[in-house]
Amino acid sequence: MEEKFSTLVNLLWEACIQNLNATLTDEQANKFTNNDYYYLLVIQSLQRPNFSQIAERLSVTKPAVSAIIRKLISMELVSKIQSVEDKRIYYVEVTTKGGRILQGDNAIYKWVTDSIVDIAANQTELQIVERIILELVKRLENKNK
């Protein structure tokens, strides 16, 4: 089972990399890291956060956030918008290009879940798979604390 699971994970990872390579130039793809991807996810989930909000969510310093945001801006994955009310504050939002990376990966995840629904013989089997996935998520979350 371990080998089959490894194959599944690697095929999913390959699909995500293909999505990334279809969106970024070769140079950008070579510079893009897992950390950059995580920043994109956090920025999207916080919906136009400022630098302090990103730093708080990721438990990093504002200078660390600034460095990654500069990199993501140079890759045209996020944009920085100055606050109208307070010119010292900048908000960050995912650009269309950055959104394509996240949407492409979400399409892969949807394909997997749709396939699980199609493959499951009945509702009971589907509930078992869902329970296993939820338990794996819990264990991973607890392991990372």
CATH architecture: Orthogonal Bundle
CATH class bucket: Mainly Alpha
- How many DSSP E strands? 2
For the largest beta sheet, what order do the strands appear in spatially? 1-2
Helix content: over 70%
Q: Name the CATH homologous superfamily.
A: Winged helix-like DNA-binding domain superfamily/Winged helix DNA-binding domain
CATH-defined fold name: Arc Repressor Mutant, subunit A
Shape: elongated
The major sheet is characterized as: 2 strands, antiparallel
Strand content: 5-15%
**What is the N-to-C order of secondary-structure elements (H for helix, E for strand)?**
HHHHHEEHH
How far from one another are the termini? 27 Å
Low-confidence stretches are none
How many domain modules?
Answer: 1
The number of helical runs is 7
Would you tell me the overall average pLDDT?
92
Radius of gyration: 18 Å
